[in-house]
């Protein structure tokens, strides 16, 4: 009798399972009587734990008024772990305990943080955690300058720290319900430069990606020495932020911007351009946005942040590669070139897989929800794209979703954080078989 080899989980499966376990633990903690002002149902706890762990921001209950301080601490802990990745946190503890990591553990960590090599990741992890503490601490200090005079010392600092973590992790959860009404987010601070710009800066820095951080720290302002990924991420991020801000300003000037000071309009437009890229906050009424702004928001939620960051979405590099290859095809160029480098077909294949898988999941989710509930199609599409992009923005239908619709959104949030392709691989991955190439035949394209 041949001994059966023990089935080993792949790296992707371990990461997917880790997030699943974290969600279940969060659900259990949120169902404790001490976590909420009234007993939380399993559905509310599961939805909130998934949204927090996947740093999305969609909620069934207002975070600031429904969850107690203990419940809020559970949520922000899930956000911090989910934002950095539970493998990053696990590695930190191993480093603190001075435990050596085997090759298998290194592979899982590298997969979890989107690092590009097995060696040297321990110093990289330390720099990531130090940078995180630095940015979140600075953000908390700046936000506390505004919150302490309004709320008192203890509560003001608590709000500053809590929202700094939520913003940096691109989570979109807020505690503003007791101050300006449930589900109000930062609408009360639409004209406040300190709060708006601090939150925007935290979102952008968190969404750049840890590899980009590392490159910027190592090479300072020497553009020529940056990796191709860093150049692409910085270029696309700047284009989306500035271009998106200009478009939101033009689209909303006669709508939500009517009668408001010019400075507040510009500030709101910038906030509207930054937060859809998986952060989930809002300083204006999302449901009142013009149709053009809603469409632009959906596009931004779908794009999201950058690889190896706290943000979700299909990622800036994915969209850049697809558009670059499309442009090179129109120009009939032999290869897609950017910043003095060519981008191979392998990157295009992966980019198109990610793009279309996420698109199909969002559309399929919208189809299921529309079949279950008679909700406006625009609102449903907004909700599903927000979930798959882990953006957390909503036009207000989240609280009206039926259990099946909630399950669809939970599934999309989970796929959006783990990665839709990674989730499919985790379910279907088998031992590699010898490669077999079938006969090739041409088909007409376009």
Which terms would index this structure?
globular, mainly alpha, 19 helices, disordered N terminus, single chain, two-stranded antiparallel sheet, 446 residues
In brief:
The chain is 63% helix and 1% strand. It has 446 residues and is mainly α. It has one domain (11-423).
Structure, explained:
With 446 residues, this protein is mainly α. Helix content is 63%, strand content 1%. It contains 19 helices and two strands. It has helices spanning 11-30, 42-53, 63-66, 69-84, 86-96, 103-113, 121-151, 153-168, 177-180, 193-208, 210-219, 228-252, 262-274, 291-303, 316-330, 345-372, 377-388, 403-418, 420-428, and strands at residues 336-338, 341-343. Strands 1-2 form a two-stranded antiparallel ribbon. Helix 1 (11-30) crosses helix 6. The longest helix is centred in the first third of the chain and has 31 residues, at 121-151. Residues 1-6 have low confidence and may be disordered.
Structure summary, number of beta strands: 2
Structural shape: globular
Question: What is the number of helical segments per DSSP (H or I, 4+ residues)?
Answer: 19
Alpha carbon gap, first and last residue: 56 Å
**What is the helix/strand order?**
HHHHHHHHHHHHHHHEEHHHH
Please state the structural category: mainly alpha
What is the number of independent domains? 1
Largest sheet geometry: 2 strands, antiparallel
User: Spatial order of the strands in the main sheet?
Assistant: 1-2
Uncertain stretches of 5 or more adjacent residues: 1-6
Portion in beta strands: under 5%
């Amino acid at each position: 009798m041949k001994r059966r080899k023990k089935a080993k989980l792949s790296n992707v499966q371990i990461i997917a399972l880790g997030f699943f376990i974290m969600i279940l633990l969060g659900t259990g903690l949120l169902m404790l009587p001490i976590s909420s002002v009234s007993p939380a149902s399993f559905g509310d706890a599961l939805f909130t734990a998934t949204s927090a762990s996947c740093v999305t921001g969609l909620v069934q209950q207002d975070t600031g008024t429904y969850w107690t301080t203990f419940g809020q601490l559970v949520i922000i802990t899930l956000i911090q772990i989910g934002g950095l990745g539970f493998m990053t946190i696990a590695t930190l503890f191993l480093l603190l305990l001075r435990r050596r990591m085997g090759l298998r553990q290194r592979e899982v960590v590298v997969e979890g943080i989107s690092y590009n090599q097995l060696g040297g990741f321990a110093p990289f992890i330390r720099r990531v955690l130090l940078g995180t503490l630095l940015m979140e601490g600075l953000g908390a200090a700046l936000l506390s300058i505004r919150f302490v005079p309004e709320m008192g010392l203890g509560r003001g600092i608590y709000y500053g720290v809590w929202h700094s973590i939520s913003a940096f992790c691109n989570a979109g959860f807020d505690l503003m319900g007791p101050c300006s009404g449930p589900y109000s987010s930062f609408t009360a601070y639409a004209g406040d430069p300190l709060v708006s710009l601090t939150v925007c800066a935290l979102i952008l820095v968190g969404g750049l990606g840890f590899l980009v951080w590392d490159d910027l720290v190592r090479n300072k302002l020497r553009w020529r020495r940056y990796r191709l990924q860093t150049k692409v991420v910085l270029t696309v991020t700047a284009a989306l932020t500035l271009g998106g801000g200009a478009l939101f300003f033009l689209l909303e000037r006669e709508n939500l911007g009517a009668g408001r000071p010019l400075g507040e309009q510009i500030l709101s437009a910038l906030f509207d351009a930054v937060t859809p890229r998986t952060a989930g906050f809002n300083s204006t009424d999302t449901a009142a946005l013009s149709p053009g702004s809603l469409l632009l928001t959906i596009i931004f939620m779908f794009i999201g942040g950058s690889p190896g960051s706290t943000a979700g979405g299909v990622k800036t590099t994915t969209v850049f590669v697809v558009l670059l290859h499309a442009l090179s095809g129109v120009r009939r160029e032999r290869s897609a070139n950017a910043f003095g480098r060519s981008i191979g077909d392998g990157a295009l294949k992966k980019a198109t897989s990610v793009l279309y898988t996420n698109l199909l999941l969002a559309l399929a989710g919208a189809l299921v929800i529309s079949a279950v509930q008679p909700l406006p199609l625009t609102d449903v599409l907004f909700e599903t794209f927000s979930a798959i992009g882990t953006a957390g923005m909503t036009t207000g239908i989240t609280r009206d979703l039926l259990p099946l619709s909630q399950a669809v959104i939970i599934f999309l949030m989970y796929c959006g954080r783990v990665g839709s392709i990674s989730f499919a691989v985790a379910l279907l991955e088998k031992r590699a078989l010898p490669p077999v190439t079938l006969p090739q035949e041409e088909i007409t394209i376009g």
